[in-house]
Every structure is written in structure tokens, then in C-alpha cells.
């Protein structure tokens, strides 16, 4: 049995993008460096989006220029269009992430175009990214529900997944943007996506934890054969276009679960706990990771 699980740390991007106060570039760089040192094999470090839409991510180029790259870690950036791709290429990222939605209403709010238009925009981005030898990932927002449309039909998720694969995505992210999914629904969606993609190598689970279901959903996805998950140190985050949605599931909680199951992540949980304590203090927020808080308390004796 394959006991390796890839955990993609998305805190520097999905986590920080929602912070109201601008987080200093130096703090962003230190966050990525600490996460690299903890051993994550993939870190979603920045996005190259319109600073009018998400001002917090305006310094992506500087962040990428300032970090210490660890051999064995891939650094990813979200890009919505060719302008974003140019930023990502200049910053020498390893992977670009195009992001679509399985819901028309969310697509309009998040990237200001329909699903079909987003595919037209992504086409040249995907081609140029591949030509440059980069990995390509496609995110499927609202796969388990939409803040504007409510339930998302499974067929809409599969349709978007198919389109992303046709664009050449190496990996596709089934994303529960607002954390409404339940374990049963997660299985249903993963099994449907599994009809057109290899769940063990091509599909990831990206769960926000708004309703406290993320760990249960991860376990359900694991049982379906998914071996790639996204998480955010200290459970940072939310989405600027999904009001009330909380952060991603906390990395510390996911690592505690995986290691408890005897699965290997290559990540030093202890180092992530310290990073979670540090970034929570930097941002003046409560640490949203239950395992992170418990382990930090235990350590303090
Ligand atoms: P638009 O306003 O329709 O596009 O936005 P535009 O082409 O008219 O551009 C508007 C302005 O932005 C122009 O500037 C452009 O030059 C500039 P102006 O001429 O007015 O001075 N611009 C850019 N600047 C820097 N980098 C760029 C860029 N593109 C345009 N790449 C657009 C369309 C897609 C650009 C906009 O809607 C956008 O940037 N959206 C991003 C929203 C976003 O980042 N959302 C959060 C990430 S997605 C997420 O969190 C979900 C995920 O975690 C999965 C899940 O949980 O579901 C991935
Ligand atoms: Mg997200």
C-alpha cells in the first residue's frame, strides 16, 4: 500500500489573502521559509492576481525573490490570466494554478467572467505554462457547494474537472470553498471525479473548515484513494469572495491525522506547530489549529 501523502501548504496564499491588514513582505517571506524548513514538498506561496481585487497579494514577486528555496519543495502561484502568468514566470515559480469554479455565480464574483470565458482565458495560460516546463494545477471552486447558488451538481464538478484535464492540468483540486461539504457528499464527488482522473495521483482535496467537517471529509477522500491534500498552517484564511468562509483545514490537524494513520508526509509536525504559534502572534489572531494549540501547550509544559 502506498503510505505517502502529499500535503500542499497553502497558508501563505489562501491563508494570508484574506487578512485585512497588509502583512509585511518580510513576514510573508519568513512564513514561506519556515514552512520550507518544515519539509513541505509543495507550498502555494503567492498569487499573481489583480491588486485591485486582492491587495494583500500585490507583493508576490518580492516574496518569491526573497525566499530561500529548498531542494525538494515546489513553489506554486495562482494565476487568473496571461498577465498573472508573466508575473509567475518572472518569479520563476515551479507550478502555476489556474482557478475556475463549478458554479457560474462564484466564477463571476471571483474572476469576473463565466465558466466558459474562464476556460478561454486559461487556454493560453496553460499552453504557455507547459511550454515553459512548469507544472500546471487546476482548482475547482465550489465543488461541494456555492455561497451564491447553494448546492453544486456533481455533474458540474466532473464537467469542470474534464475541462481542466483537457487544458493539460497535472493535478486538479476539488475545493470546498466554503466548507459546507460532508463526508458522504465528498465521497460522491470524489468517486465521480475518479471516473475521469486517477484519484491517487491527479486529484487533491482542498477543504475549508467553516462547518468543522474538513477532517472528516479528508478521511472520506482518503478512503476513496485520494493522496494529495491542501492545508494551511494555524488554519489561516478564508476567501475574499466567500463571505463567512473560514480558513483551510489546519496543517497541524491534518499532519496529526496522517501520522496517526501511519501515513508519511515528510513534514516535521513540531516545526509546523512552532510556525503556527509564530504566525498567529504576528497576525494577532487566535491559532485555529486544535492540534497546534494542544501540542504547543504540551511543549510549554
Ligand atoms: P477584471 O477587473 O475583470 O480584469 O478582473 P481586467 O483585465 O479588466 O483588469 C482589471 C485591472 O487589474 C487592470 O488594471 C489590469 O491591468 C489589472 P487597470 O488597467 O484598471 O489599472 N490586472 C492585473 N494586475 C496584476 N496581475 C494580474 C492582473 N490581471 C488584471 N494578473 C481578474 C479579472 C481575473 C484579473 C480579477 O477578477 C482577479 O484578479 N481575480 C482574482 C480573485 C482572487 O484572487 N480570488 C482568490 C483566489 S481563488 C480562491 O481563493 C479559491 C481557492 O482557494 C480554491 C477554493 O477554496 O475554492 C483557489
Ligand atoms: Mg481556498
Task: Give an overview in words.
The chain has 301 residues and is an alpha/beta fold. The chain has a single domain (6-300), classed as Alpha-Beta Barrel (TIM Barrel), CATH 3.20.20.70. Helix content is 44%, strand content 15%. The protein is built from 12 helices and 8 strands. The protein has helices spanning 11-15, 25-38, 60-66, 82-90, 104-111, 115-131, 154-166, 183-193, 214-224, 251-260, 269-283, 290-300, and strands at 6-9, 42-47, 74-78, 95-101, 135-141, 171-176, 203-207, 228-231. It has an 8-stranded parallel β-barrel with strand order 1-2-3-4-5-6-7-8, surrounded by 9 helices. β3, α4 and β4 form a beta-alpha-beta unit. α2 (25-38) packs across α3 (60-66), α2 runs antiparallel to α11 and α10 (251-260) packs antiparallel against α11 (269-283). The mean pLDDT is 96. Residues 14, 17, 47-54, 78, 80-81, 83-84, 87, 99, 110-112, 139, 141, 175, 177, 206, 208, 239-241 line the site of 3-hydroxy-3-methylglutaryl-coenzyme A.
Amino acid at each position: 500500500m502506498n503510505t505517502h501523502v502529499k500535503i500542499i501548504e497553502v497558508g501563505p496564499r489562501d491563508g494570508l489573502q484574506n487578512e485585512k491588514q497588509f502583512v509585511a513582505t518580510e513576514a510573508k517571506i519568513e512564513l514561506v521559509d519556515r514552512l520550507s524548513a518544515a519539509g513541505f514538498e509543495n507550498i502555494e506561496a503567492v498569487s499573481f492576481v489583480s491588486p485591485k481585487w486582492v491587495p494583500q497579494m500585490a507583493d508576490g514577486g518580492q516574496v518569491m525573490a526573497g525566499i530561500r528555496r529548498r531542494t525538494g519543495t515546489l513553489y506554486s502561484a495562482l494565476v487568473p490570466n496571461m498577465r498573472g502568468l508573466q508575473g509567475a514566470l518572472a518569479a520563476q515559480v515551479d507550478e502555476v494554478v489556474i482557478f475556475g469554479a463549478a458554479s457560474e455565480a462564484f466564477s463571476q464574483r471571483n474572476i469576473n467572467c463565466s465558466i466558459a470565458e474562464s476556460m478561454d482565458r486559461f487556454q493560453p495560460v496553460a499552453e504557455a505554462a507547459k511550454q515553459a516546463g512548469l507544472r500546471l494545477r487546476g482548482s475547482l471552486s465550489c465543488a461541494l457547494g456555492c455561497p451564491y447558488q447553494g448546492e453544486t451538481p456533481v455533474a458540474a464538478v466532473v464537467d469542470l474537472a474534464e475541462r481542466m484535464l483537457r487544458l493539460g492540468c497535472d493535478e486538479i483540486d476539488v475545493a470546498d470553498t466554503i466548507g459546507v461539504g460532508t463526508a458522504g457528499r465528498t465521497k460522491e464527488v470524489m468517486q465521480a471525479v475518479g471516473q475521469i482522473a486517477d484519484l491517487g495521483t491527479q486529484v487533491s482535496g482542498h477543504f475549508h473548515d467553516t462547518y468543522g467537517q474538513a477532517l472528516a471529509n479528508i478521511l472520506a477522500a482518503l478512503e476513496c484513494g485520494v493522496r494529495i491534500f491542501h492545508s494551511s498552517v494555524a488554519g489561516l484564511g478564508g476567501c475574499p469572495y466567500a463571505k463567512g468562509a473560514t480558513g483551510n483545514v489546519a496543517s497541524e490537524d491534518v499532519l496529526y491525522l496522517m501520522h496517526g494513520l501511519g501515513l508519511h508526509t515528510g513534514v516535521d509536525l513540531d516545526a509546523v506547530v512552532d510556525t503556527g504559534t509564530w504566525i498567529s502572534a504576528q497576525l494577532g489572531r487566535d491559532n485555529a489549529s486544535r492540534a497546534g494549540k494542544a501540542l504547543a501547550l504540551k511543549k510549554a509544559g
